[in-house]
């Protein structure tokens, strides 16, 4: 293990002074974001009033105004909720590991397909977990490399950790997870990926949060471990920003929409309810809560848990280290699968709700609209319509000229920098991630969004999709 390997990084619990600083940074970013939004709205109104000729231009300005208001409301509300969640997290959880707390057995489900290069490190992280009773249920999903051979070398009892190894014909991750669950004996179930590895304190922190919040499931923090290029650093910043705002805000309402595959703790009783209500039914050999009709089984399962009225929360101190794509083509391919899978899950969930409207709560509906409607509809429209609109009228005067533009850019910088430092503190991340902040806008709004038209077209025409 090299000195750069992040698994040795400690995850200390912030003290009260640190939480106070984080709260101030959240509040400053929320105020800066709101001010930036107000200035943007004023600029749109000024441009619209200065160029009154043409119905099309006025309609365009009205659309931009509405979309800006929606984005502004989303980000300000999410920052405020994330601020509350961060404070609540440190009030509701104990410091350390109190004597006498019950630690039930946790079954870790680890499906794998051709993961010979990452499996050793994944198993070593399981053996190093700071938790008294761990059962690892490994399922080889028809690998053609040395995956099964390596796994069998770890089978058996290792102190507080027992590893069981199973194999099956290739049928997909979902079927491997169902097989693992049928062989699990734990009261709690942890989902992991074979190409990731866990921080030693991850499982204990997940369990602490699960019990403190009375939740049905807890999502952990997925951290990029290979930071060898600007592209990897941008992905690291993206993961940090998503978790620091969206997932933290959703956690305040107990409505985390996606428990990411590399680390998520569930109550076994909740998974059994999902299987009975929505899952693959016997006599199928793949019976269980997971289904194979989407490419985003983690999103599908999370929505099913929320549909049952359970709460799903987030614990940033539970870290899973994952390997991110290293090339632009590999990254776009990954995001194509993620986006396509998300659309499949949303369509599936919509059909389920039409059949049984009571499955959709107000909080879940609000978050689906705030996240997926704005990301998949409003944000692309802002890019396609807003940028040409602003450039077209820049020469004619932008609500006060260069001074207004400079002020808006300054507010954006303050907001982005404050959030980067805040999230680095709340997630024990490297502050130097802020160095790639100038590239975050083009990376997320232009580069990643460039695949969306292809995803939408392929999904509408039902093009087959393979991993």
* Rounded Rg: 23 Å
CATH class membership of the largest domain: Alpha Beta
Q: Structural class, from helix and strand content?
A: alpha/beta
Overall number of strands:
9
In round numbers, the mean pLDDT is 87
Going by CATH, the homologous superfamily of the largest domain would be Spore Coat Polysaccharide Biosynthesis Protein SpsA, Chain A
The biggest beta sheet reads: 9 strands, mixed
Overall morphology: globular
Describe this structure in words.
By secondary structure, this protein is an alpha/beta fold. It has two domains: 12-92 and 371-460; 106-364, Spore Coat Polysaccharide Biosynthesis Protein SpsA, Chain A (Alpha-Beta Complex). Helices cover 55% and strands 12% of the residues. It contains 14 helices and nine strands. The protein has helices spanning 16-50, 55-92, 119-127, 147-152, 173-182, 202-213, 230-252, 268-277, 297-307, 328-355, 362-394, 402-426, 440-447, 452-460, and strands spanning 106-112, 134-141, 156-158, 161-168, 188-192, 197-198, 217-224, 263-267, 312-322. A nine-stranded mixed β-sheet has the order 3-4-2-1-5-8-7-9-6, with helices on both faces. The protein starts with 15 loop residues before the first helix and ends in a 7-residue tail after the last helix.
How is the topology of this model organized?
Blueprint: H1 16-50, H2 55-92, E1 106-112, H3 119-127, E2 134-141, H4 147-152, E3 156-158, E4 161-168, H5 173-182, E5 188-192, E6 197-198, H6 202-213, E7 217-224, H7 230-252, E8 263-267, H8 268-277, H9 297-307, E9 312-322, H10 328-355, H11 362-394, H12 402-426, H13 440-447, H14 452-460
Parallel strand pairs: 1-2, 1-5, 2-4, 7-9
Antiparallel strand pairs: 3-4, 5-8, 6-9, 7-8
